[in-house]
Amino acid sequence: MNKPFSKEIVETLHKKLINEERDILARVRELKADDPFSNPDHVNDNAAIDTDVREQTGHDTIEAQVISLEKRLFQIQAAFKKIAEKKYGTCENCSKQILLARLQLVPEARYCIDCEKKFVK
Ligand SMILES: [Zn+2]
């Protein structure tokens, strides 16, 4: 059984996660503001077909980015929960401790490297 991370380490990573969450939320807001579908003129604009296609493509690209950011957000929030439950840094699959170097790179990591490899095919 590994020694759990010190309070200081968890606090440092917690701060990192808070910053990341804030950045992602800001990015999602920016993307949504850029979405042609959120333009109030869009609905009645009677635009030419090519404009509609461009708007659709823009909307799809933005939506895909928002979805991937929201997935990360979800993982970050799961990490906050683990910190609160004092389980932060343990693999959700095998319960082994996740390497600190990995958490410093990906503080929201839920699995150790070995398990992550099994999941990502
Ligand atoms: Zn594992």
TrEMBL record:
Keywords: Metal-binding, Zinc, Zinc-finger. Residues 87-118 form the Zinc finger DksA/TraR C4-type domain. A zinc finger (dksA C4-type) spans 91-115. The keyword Zinc applies. It comes from the Bacteria. The keyword Metal-binding applies. GO terms for molecular function: zinc ion binding. This is Zinc finger DksA/TraR C4-type domain-containing protein.
